[in-house]
Specification:
There is one protein chain. The protein is an alpha+beta fold. The protein folds into two domains: 18-74, no CATH class; 80-161, Immunoglobulin-like, CATH 2.60.40. It is built from one helix and eight strands, in the order ββαββββββ. It has a three-stranded antiparallel sheet with strand order 3-4-7, with no helix packed on it. It has a three-stranded antiparallel sheet with strand order 6-5-8, with no helix packed on it. The chain has a two-stranded antiparallel sheet with strand order 1-2. A hairpin with a 6-residue loop joins strand 1 and strand 2 (27-29).
Length: 162
């Protein structure tokens, strides 16, 4: 005796994954970049590695260009050496007298970090000061009032860079 066969249930149709044509926006297969009307000759579609490689090359050229521009515009400024000549209390802060030398071949400003080297906790007790323009091979002595170090005179250290 043969068993009666029951028809297997129909599988639901799963739609093919699609995305939009890069030129006109028509829905197309994810394997293609252009639809039939935008690519009537059926030319080979660009590979994903080609597109990503082109983007990577553009980023690499931009980074190299920015490095070259930074060297051109900032090259020759510094190195800087600095010293604290004096520190005097002034209200809720200190008036610092800084001496900064530019050993470079171009004029420029320095950003100086002034901190308490005896305070080892985190965050450090520090402040930042921007110098006036310093001629190449020249030096500048200037006063700057700061509040980030408190009002007590204590040992301070300074280092400057561009």
């Amino acid at each position: 005796m043969s068993q009666p066969t029951t028809p297997s249930p129909a599988r639901p149709l799963v739609p093919e994954p699609t995305h939009r044509c890069v030129r006109c926006g028509a829905p197309i297969s994810v394997a293609d970049a252009l639809c039939r009307s935008c690519n009537p000759a059926g030319l080979k579609q660009p590979a994903a590695s080609q597109a990503h490689g082109t983007i990577f090359l553009g980023i690499a050229i931009a980074v190299v260009g920015m490095a070259a521009a930074a060297t051109f515009f900032l090259g020759g400024v510094g190195p800087f050496s600095a010293a604290i000549r004096s520190a005097a209390p002034d209200g809720d802060g200190l008036v610092l007298t800084l001496a900064v030398d530019n050993a470079g071949s171009r004029a420029g400003h320095a950003s100086c970090r002034v901190w308490d080297p005896t305070y080892l906790a985190n965050p450090p007790v520090e402040t930042f000061v921007r110098t006036p323009e310093i001629a190449p091979g020249g030096s500048v002595v200037f006063d700057q009032r700061v509040t980030g170090l408190g009002a007590a005179v204590r040992p301070l250290a300074v280092s400057c860079s561009r």
